[in-house]
Design a protein that fits this description.
The structure holds 2 protein chains of 2 kinds. Chain A has helices at 18-23, 28-36, 39-49, 61-66, 90-97, 99-113, 127-142, 173-180, 209-213, 215-221, 223-227, 261-267, 301-306, 325-339, 345-362, 368-381, 388-414, 424-439; strands spanning 76-81, 117-122, 158-163, 204-208, 237-244, 250-255, 277-285, 290-291, 315-320. Chain A is of the alpha/beta class. Classes of the chains: A alpha/beta, B alpha+beta.
Amino acid sequence: MDKHVLLRDLDTPNIRELNVYQANEGYAAWRKAVGGMKPDEVIQVVKDSGLRGRGGAGFPAGVKWSFLPKDVFPKYVVVNGDESEAGTFKDHQLIEKNPHQVIEGVALCAYAVQAATAYIYLRGEFYEPSRVLQQALDEAYAAGLLGKNIQGSTYSLDIYIHLGAGAYICGEETALLESLEGKLGQPRLRPPFPAVQGLYAKPTVINNIETLANVPPIVLNGAQWYRQFGTEKSPGTKIFCVSGRVNKPGNYELPLGKHTIRELIELAGGTIDGRPVKGILPAGSSAPILPASALDTKLDYESVQAAGSILGSASFVILDDTVDIVWAARKMVRFFKHESCGKCTPCREGTHWALKLYDKIVSGHGSLHDIIMLLEVGNGMANKCFCLLGEFATSPILSTIKHFRTEYEQFVREHQGGRANGYHDELMRDHAIVDHAIAGAPGEHGSSG
Amino acid sequence: MRKVFYVLHVTNYARQDIMLKEKHATEIEAILAKYPTKRSAVMPLLYVAQQEYGFCDEQAIREVAELTALDPTEVKSIVGFYTMFFEEKTGQYVIEVCDDLPCALRGADKFVQHCEHKLGIRAGQTTPDGKFTLRTVMCIAACDRAPVAQVNREYKYSLTPESFDKMVDELK
């Protein structure tokens, strides 16, 4: 790849400015669409490109757009910028460094489905990036690219930013809609699907920031151009977030299916001190862990799935041989326990008891039986939760035990009898915070779980 | 339908003269204009209230409830659900350090220990002078620049014990 399709700030540092963006084909697709393309033509080109949702599910974007009923108004476009999966930081870079491409993508999506309003939902922690995006929106309005009768056409569009307030569950699309409507961020039962009854019970498209950032170059250059990158089933480029035990953590944009996990780690500077890889989390905490034997897996949706995990948002967390797998699993379970919204029992109770078991093991009071109990809790939750958060929460439990069971057993034996280990302080801190939350003392506040 | 009567225990009448509605009239109007329902404005308005009062106390909840035509209990439940709305008074600077897995793989736990030592408090507490609150938080989407923290929602990337000490000393 000579040039980035998404992380264009790496090629053109000031692309966040409107004039620089416009000088580099910025808003050309938007002018082309509003100036003479039929909305269905925009949907068709996105369909033909084979662009798949980059938020995690990988559903074809154009197909999603075509599900909206044509004769119901108003329609809404909601952009998912909740980016809360541990290890994911790609949308962060996109909105901060290339905001106009995001806005142009949102506008094209809104035009394609004929929505007059779009909301960009950003996690509350993105207060600073939201200022950058708002400034870009203001510039676009001032340049007549948004607002009433855009570029002399009959089409009008308003784009608003909405900030969340710290809840992982709001990345789940129906929980996001609830949150946007001013309610607790808890998922909705489907059907009805958002395409039919979404925001304010109106037809709604929900797409991830990265997905929509792909749309301007697709509309401008055509589906065939886009398909030169990637594979037949996973076309295009994808941003891979690499974090953990590597020398150069960061975002790397690569065509799908061309490179392997090993090459991605090399691109990220290799592991710290060149230590051997122990495990790979291909989509943060929610993806089943892959052992080092999967290093030669190709980076596309199908290959990662065949290897036993999911590509999801492609946030690769790399664990080397210095990492205690039981400790890492506990960290992930703690995350899900904290973020469980409390709506359904398997998730609310399951994450709670799983963390208790991990605390017992990590503090040195566990037995081999507790490993079996963990499997029971994990299997007791699997396929029974209301939304994917609960299902994701079983990944760190079941997959780490599957691949590293001997290490669990060794951990239990080595730390038997509560012998002092390096995790004491951390456990104390977590529990002090939990106690505070219950007592209503300053610090952690109720939490979303 | 059962009508819910909610009695608020107002402990500080003196504060009632600050009214968000008047003091932030333009901002509030702009927020309400973004959505077809008033209810959708509840989170942005809570941010306005929190900015004004420092945390979402009863006064803040009552005012936001009035602006959104919601019952105060509903607003209170929103405050409780989302971690970024504070129910208790915090320090002037809220320091939130991520200790989730990706950051922890790059030394976040040790870093939090350092923060606790420097500030003389445990995570979850506020310094006696009311200056700093230290919290640990889940992933804040900046794992490539770990250890990472936010101070009053401003990112502080690639922190070291030295840069943390310097930051705290400058804020003192």
